[in-house]
Predict the 3D structure of the following.
Amino acid sequence: MKKIAFKSLTKPLFLSAVILASMNSANAQIEPFAVSFNTIADISIVQDQPLSFGPNIFITNGGVCTLNAATPLAATMQSDESTLTGANYGDIAGSGCVTTLAGVNGNQGGYYRVTGVSGISVKVTVNPASNADFAFVPAGCVIDHDGTAAANSDNCLPFASGTQLTSTLANATEGGGSGVDQQLMIAVGGTITINQALTSGTPYTQDFTIEVTY
């Protein structure tokens, strides 16, 4: 007997499989969907009050002078006032300078404003600087906002020269004596050491840097 029946059965089965595969393929759907983001705003740093020891420095090599930055007034540090005040803030004293109360003869602490994303933490480093004439080692503090509206409730964290610390920008809840949204303040004083004999009646200057990153 010829096996014709088997040949006639296999063809429809194969054809059914092809049709089923085609139907499944026709029912599939592929669609593109987007992933997106916005980059955060840059951090900015501006000087509200320049750091100055005034015309009070002796010319002798090896002299040391320190500008007090230990006690800035909390209400001033946390507000948008442009002049930083506080008990003894800006006083200078040492072997290399005339002992002078803050502001009496051009001596004042530096005051710097950082602006960034509301309520976010930032890393702050205030770096030393030096040249052939003198070396500067900064000291002071950075406001760390607590996110509340309570006046003068934030802390001013003392920083070590060249050492990173973490602080928090003010948020929208804070205001008035508690802070300005998206901002924090840095108070800078420190110590200068004379590296060589200087020329009398001559201005001297050297840049130092403040680094702030998210």
